[in-house]
Amino acid sequence: MDVDYWNRLAVGFSESVFEVTERDARGVIRKTARRLGDKRATAADFGCGAGASTRAVAPFFKRVTGVDFSAKLLAVARAKTDADNVRYRKADLAAMDPRLFRCDVAFCFNVLLSPETSARAAIAANVIGAIRRGGAGVFIAPSLESELRSYQVALACRTGAGFARGVAAREMDASARRDVVSLSQGVVNLGGAPTKHFFQDEIAELLTECGLHDVAVSRVRYPWDVVLDDAPDDMPYAEPWDWIAIGRKG
């Protein structure tokens, strides 16, 4: 991961980077934090960025620590946070000592994005390693199924707008060829960055291999304008989604 890249994004971060907690169409993230929360428990938000997710879960815990490796993003997070139970610390998630970040509940939202398998495994193992026995881990990760479905929905929108189906299909196929770096590895270009996307059983398998048990996977849905610039207001299709995977530390 390129810390300089993320430091450069610190100014205007919320405008240039998708904040999952702010576009969660059905409030799944806050409902999850409320269900797992306890005013005697501590939580950590790994890969907290500018702190939007840290602030979202903070009301449900005694103390929350936001962790990121970008000093400039952490400075933005501190400036935006006025909750007394939130603190921020700098660490590289792939190389940190999990013992320094012990928590009852770990949140890790759209951090397992590297196209490198070893980097994703290192981060997942360290985050799960920070969870106390009996605690919970909550991970959000991009859905490959949702990404592929978006091309079909875009095709339907184009034909609904009057484009010939063959023309629209060729346009969508060309877009997919540009965007999908590796279908077999689930890597898709997002904003020019090769980004890992997961099948549903794949994210569960990774977290299980890294130490979580009884991993349950469901969906965090977003408005269609997150993925389609010209999405009509009356879209008849279910919204796009990320996976939210929740498991326990044995």
Write the element-wise H/E pattern from the N-terminal end onward. Answer: HHHHEHEHEEHEHHEEEHEE
Q: Total number of helical segments?
A: 10
Q: Architecture, according to CATH?
A: 3-Layer(aba) Sandwich
CATH topology: Rossmann fold
Low-confidence stretches: none
Please, what is the CATH homologous superfamily?
A: Vaccinia Virus protein VP39
Distance N to C terminus: 30 Å
Strand order of the largest sheet: 3-2-1-4-5-10-9
Draw up the topology in text.
Blueprint: H1 3-8, H2 13-16, H3 20-23, H4 28-36, E1 38-46, H5 52-57, E2 61-68, H6 71-80, E3 86-90, E4 103-109, H7 117-129, E5 131-142, H8 144-160, H9 165-179, E6 180-182, E7 187-190, E8 193-196, H10 200-209, E9 212-221, E10 241-249
Parallel strand pairs: 1-2, 1-4, 2-3, 4-5
Antiparallel strand pairs: 5-10, 6-7, 7-8, 9-10
Question: Can you characterise this structure?
Answer:
- The chain has one domain (3-142, 197-249): 3-Layer(aba) Sandwich (Rossmann fold), CATH 3.40.50.
- 38% of the residues lie in helices and 28% in strands.
- The protein has ten helices and ten strands.
- The radius of gyration is 19 Å and the shape is globular.
